[in-house]
Amino acid sequence: MTKKRTSSWRQWLLFFVVVCLFSVIWSVPASLLPRLLTWSGVNDHNGNALVEVYRTRGRLWAGRAERVQVHNNQQTLLLENVEWQLRWRALLSAQLCLKISSDGAPGTVEGDVCVNSAGEFTATDMIFELPAAELVSTQLTGAALVRSLDNSVQVQGMVSGTVEELHWQPNQQHLQINARGLWTDAAIALQLPDPQTGRMRMQAIRLHQLPWRLSSRAPDQVFLQIHGTPAVAADAVDLVVVAQSDIWLDGRFLTRLQVTLQESTPQILRDILMIIAEPQQTGVYQLVWRNNGA
Predict the structure, then answer these.
(1) How far apart are CA 226 and CA 209, in angstroms?
(2) Could you report the per-residue pLDDT of 133-176, keeping only the tens digit for each?
């Protein structure tokens, strides 16, 4: 009888310890996440954090941050109102895995990301939708392509896509990525003279729908393809655009842009293309942009 009581007492004590331990772990505040990222080695060669998490709420297992910044050299990706759920089983394999979603203005991001003990990022099946203007206004590699044209140039429409695979080693500047998507209602607004008044005004050049694909070409280089097609309605598009761009993680890029004139292409734009672009054939021009970095 005494042995049975002792065994029962030990079982209850063990159960009590497990419950207390679980309660302590479950109540860990969300503010611990930035420290976990630092301990995971998500830092540059100077020890600076590559991922910064601001104003967290909730618990470590299910929390929310008002702002998350991801840095790479001089480039920054900003996400607002980010919620996460921690995959606790991944901790057993020395990985920090989160299911994240960002519903903050102006766009949305959702997917699974993991960081291992070496500070390497992986992401799968991540979907996003952002205004094209927001992508250009960020300090991402290749955004300087549009910013370098003119301060008065504005891009319009929504860019959506799926990141099927991403593997990033920030300390070694290695990136493996495969992503695809669509730029809907694509347009570029330019300051052009009004054909009737002669005054400068913002005019939108409609590009229609632009499918795009992003893939790795080298450990530090990605390749972006954009292939526009004529619209069903002849007056729904002003230019048909085909672009190929090599982009390096250090900020360099080389972009070849081919544009095909349409019936609705403004005459002033036709005149400008005759000056700044290289004619390929009747109604087709090619432009080349290059940035050799800092």
Answers:
(1) 10
(2) 877 765 444 454 454 455 567 888 999 999 999 998 877 778 89
Q: What is the pTM of this model?
A: 0.78
Tell whether 153 and 247 lie within a shared domain: yes
**235, part of any domain:** yes
SS3 of 28-68: the string is: CEHHHHHHHHHHCCCECCCCCECEEEEEEEEECCEEEEEEE
69: amino acid identity, one letter? Q
Taking residues 242-258, report their average pLDDT.
Answer: 87
Q: Of the candidates 93, 118, 143, which is a domain's last residue? A: 118
Position 5 in a domain: no
Pair (212, 136) in one structural domain? yes
Q: What share of the chain is helix, strand, coil (3-state, %, to 5)?
A: 25, 55, 25
Tokens 């070694």 -> residue = 172
143/261 same-domain check: yes
Domain count, the chain: 2
* CA atoms of 166 and 224, how far apart (whole Å): 15
Cis bond leading into 230, ω under 30°? no
